[in-house]
Specification:
About 55% of the residues lie in helices and about 10% in strands. It is built from 20 helices and 11 strands. The strands form 2 sheets. Strands 1, 2, 3, 4, 5 and 6 form a 6-stranded mixed sheet that branches. The relative contact order is 0.06. Bound molecules: manganese (II) ion.
């Protein structure tokens, strides 16, 4: 890796940019880490370069890339944060300081998980870019994990899987999430990883590739006929997600048909729907697998049309249809769209932020003057709490072990009173199921149903739900009594 690769990659998206600061940072970096080596014998500066390069890949801004280059200086060299501030200014120094603080968080088992998560978010509230740098740093460390003692390898991989990857997912930076997960998978479950790589890469890939090519040829020809300009690509699901699917559903590899997806990128939303129509006219769709994330985006802002059809030879094929802009957003998450504009306080972009990010930013504003986030009593959002998403894209934080009924009353009393069922992560679930962090929960209501079920009191977790159920039961009883004895008050 060289500094020129970083500069070139950055200039791809910012052809006009002045990168003299980057050159200066590189000079400083070389001087600071001179003669230092990594565990694997590589010059230390390679780690700095790789970190900075990954940041250019997720389209980070120049300050973030420079801070990526300098991120280990205060911790590992004789130079201090004050030196960085003197040479590169307050903004970059603040980013590096954030990283230095974050590196003090160590994984000490699952019981500390939430505490760590909380600290991560605190750091993030200060500047989301700190998290991006930390992710890039972690990713390169995972790539060079082999040179560490086995115990340390396992610890880092576990910590990444439990803390970093979920946060990358919440922020919508799937590119980093998947890379981190596959690397952790390799270190934590080496046998399974080897087996799966073998079936996936060697035995099946050729077969899949031929099938994909066949579909591409047919679809490309049709889209050309219809004069819809598009890019048609395919991608294989990452290994860890296949492994999880096999675990969860206890299925064999052959039964997992969505190991690859075809991606159609078109120029506008109208063409997305036109393309969908064409695909459905070519092959019979599986209605249960059709998702319109353009009309109803995912909580993290993800937009696309998803459909699975019975393709040539009646074998299933998954399509993801989206515009260029949606494609960028899906790849780079917060790094790609609204985040950088927060600085400019652009109202339109603020609206696109997930609710929880707004919350974190609000808390950050409120605590700006205290310089003491950790002690902020108000900020106990993440303690013993889970996040659940609704199909509208709202995020609710609830106590652990909350149920769909808790959520229903949290959203609105009427939703609670009319609840007849729930869908958790697109699957029908009982109303007393214990929700998990990150669940997508839809409450199924029926207008005719008016009033709660007494049995719900046995399992609800929140005081809000409990009180509202009791209140409603009482008033229903009173209504019934009034019906039979009209004069009672
Ligand atoms: Mn580092």
């Amino acid at each position: 890796m060289t500094i020129n690769q970083i500069i070139n990659n950055y200039k791809k998206n910012n052809p006009e940019a002045d990168t003299i600061m980057l050159d200066l940072a590189w000079e400083f970096c070389q001087k600071a880490h001179a003669n230092q080596k990594r565990e694997d014998g590589e010059p230390y500066i390679q780690h700095c370069l790789h970190t900075a390069f990954m940041l250019t890949q997720i389209k980070a801004d120049l300050e973030t890339i420079i801070a990526g280059l300098l991120h280990d200086i205060p911790e590992d060299t004789e130079y201090t944060l004050a030196d960085i501030e003197k040479n590169f200014g307050k903004e970059i120094a603040n980013l590096v300081e954030g990283i230095t603080k974050l590196s003090k968080i160590k994984y000490r088992g699952i019981e500390r998980y939430r505490e760590n998560l909380r600290k991560m978010f605190l750091a993030m509230a200060k500047d989301l870019r700190v998290i991006l740098i930390k992710f890039a740093d972690r990713l390169h460390n995972l790539k060079t994990l082999e040179s560490l003692p086995l115990e340390k390898q396992q610890r880092i991989a576990k910590e990444t899987l439990e803390i970093y990857a979920p946060i990358a997912g919440l922020l919508g930076i799937f590119r980093l999430k998947w890379q981190m997960e596959d690397l952790c998978f390799k270190h934590l479950y080496p046998e399974e990883y080897k087996k799966l790589t073998y079936t996936y890469e060697i035995e099946k890939k050729l077969e899949h590739n031929q099938y994909i090519q066949k579909i591409k040829n047919i679809l490309n020809a049709r889209l050309k006929q219809e004069k819809i300009p598009c890019q048609l690509t395919s991608r294989f699901k990452h290994l860890y997600s296949i492994y999880l699917k096999m675990q969860n559903k206890d299925r064999k590899f052959d039964e997992i048909y969505d190991v690859f997806a075809l991606r159609v990128v078109v120029s506008n939303i109208a063409d997305c729907y036109k393309t969908l129509g064409i695909i459905h006219s070519l092959w019979r769709p599986n209605p249960a697998r059709f998702k319109d994330y353009i009309a109803v985006p995912k909580p993290n802002g993800y937009r696309a049309l998803h459909t699975t059809v019975f393709g040539p030879d009646n074998k299933p094929a998954e399509f993801q249809i989206r515009t260029n802009k949606m494609d960028e957003e899906a790849k780079y998450g917060i790094a790609a769209h609204w985040y950088y504009k927060i600085k400019n306080n652009n109202d339109n972009d603020q609206k696109k932020q997930p609710t929880w990010v707004k919350e974190v930013l609000k808390i950050q504003k409120e605590t700006e003057n205290t310089h003491d986030f950790i002690k902020q009593v108000k900020f106990d959002v993440f303690h013993d709490r889970i996040f659940v998403f609704t199909p509208k894209g709202d995020v609710f934080d609830l106590p652990e072990e909350s149920t769909p009924i808790d959520l229903a009353y949290y959203v609105h009393s009427d939703i609670g009173n009319q609840a007849v069922g729930a869908r958790v992560n697109d699957k029908i679930a009982p109303l007393n199921v214990k929700l998990k962090n990150g669940d997508l929960v839809e409450i199924i209501t029926e207008k005719k149903r008016n009033g709660p079920n007494r049995d719900w009191l046995k399992f609800v977790k929140t005081a809000t739900a409990r009180n509202k159920i009791k209140q409603n039961l009482k008033s229903t009883i009173m209504d019934n009594i009034k019906k039979f004895i009209p004069n009672i008050k």
